[in-house]
Amino acid sequence: MIVATGSVELKVGNLTEHCQKTNTMSTTTEKLFDNVIKTIHARGVRYGHPITNHKRIAELWSAYLGYPIQPNEVAICMALVKISRQAEDPAYIDNYEDAIAYISIGKSITDAMQDDSDDWRD
Hints:
The chain is mainly alpha-helical. 67% of the residues lie in helices and 0% in strands. It contains 5 helices and no strands. It is globular and about 45 Å long.
């Protein structure tokens, strides 16, 4: 498995030669992030900005738990669910992708919550 690129010389069969010819290399991490970005975009097209859904979830969780939960906290908690699931099957890529996506969504929601011009509170 390749985990780094740059000036590191790779000695894996014809991989070094291939990378020199094409001047590109797609690492496992790059593929992972590419899949996460595609998934976030696809969900955005289908469901809109995640703050709407996360706001609704926060309201439901708040009512159930009896104390306030913020929309960005929903995303972080969902990432924690995926991290917990990862302990059961470390090879299952879905958990990695979803955890990264939820962390990213949490940041987007936090930014939206801090933007006074965005009326997310209604």
